[in-house]
Amino acid sequence: MHMPLEDTLGLNLLAANQHQAEHNQEHFECWNLLCLNLMSSPGAGKTALLERSLPVLTAQHKMAVLEGDMTTQLDAERLEAVGIPVVPITTGRACHLDASMVSGGLTLLKQRLDPAQLDLLLVENVGNLVCPAEFDVGEHHKVALLSVTEGDDKPLKYPLMFRQADVVLITKVDLLPHLPVELGAIRRNILSINPNATVIEVSAISGEGLETWHQWVRQAIAERTTGASAIQSPALATA
């Protein structure tokens, strides 16, 4: 049986992306740098979350952001105002960041600083619940955001995103009194897809749950530091 051409091309693309993702992670290991990939649908609150979290986390850790967007640098500008290094990655028509794009972002970041001086690299992916889940970028952990305004069935409709996430942040919980949504149903649906996910309810407006999220990030950084690899850093490349 011959596989359809479009399926073959898809597998080739994913294999090439995985090769580059592994190359990216080699750099993260050499730099002793934790990389988190933040993914969600558009408007779920990734940038708002980072605006609240970065000032708190930078009190103890050094970090930078690779900011993915299809056409503008508006989110990158919002995060630059926080006072940390931000590299915008404009994808054009692509609905996700892939490993090669992140490699290019790392090259630009290296022109500004030594990544080995950082503790954390945050990749804010393009808003999309499908494609970002397909393309690893070399991250150590995937963080999925799900806004209560999206309803409770999104984990069931887009299972790959939530199945792969190490952490799921249920965002905008301050809006729950105004919505016909049951928080317990959202949590149950997430855990039915991924029983091992850490689920944290947060609000970038009220601050609810943010300290729990920050503590998870601090613990992940600590685990990365104590488990640091001593391999020599390879030359940064996109191939």
Mean pLDDT: 90
Instruction: Say how many strands there are.
Output: 7
Q: What letter string, H or E per element, gives the SSE order? A: HEHEHEHEHEHHEHEH
Helix content: 40-55%
Unreliable stretches (pLDDT < 50, length at least 5) are 1-6, 229-239
Helix-strand category: alpha/beta
Largest sheet: 7 strands, parallel
Instruction: Tell me the Rg in angstroms.
Output: 18 Å
Given the structure, what is the number of helices?
A: 9
| Sequence of strands across the biggest β-sheet | 3-2-4-1-5-6-7
Ends distance: 31 Å
> What's the shape?
globular
Strand share of the residues? 15-25%
Give a written overview of the molecule.
This protein is an alpha/beta fold and 239 residues long. 41% of the residues lie in helices and 16% in strands. The chain is built from nine helices and seven strands, in the order αβαβαβαβαβααβαβα. It has a seven-stranded parallel β-sheet, sandwiched between helices. Helix 8 (183-193) links the parallel strand 6 (167-171) and strand 7 (198-201). Helix 1 packs parallel to helix 4 and helix 2 packs across helix 9. Mean pLDDT is 90; it is low at 1-6 and 229-239.
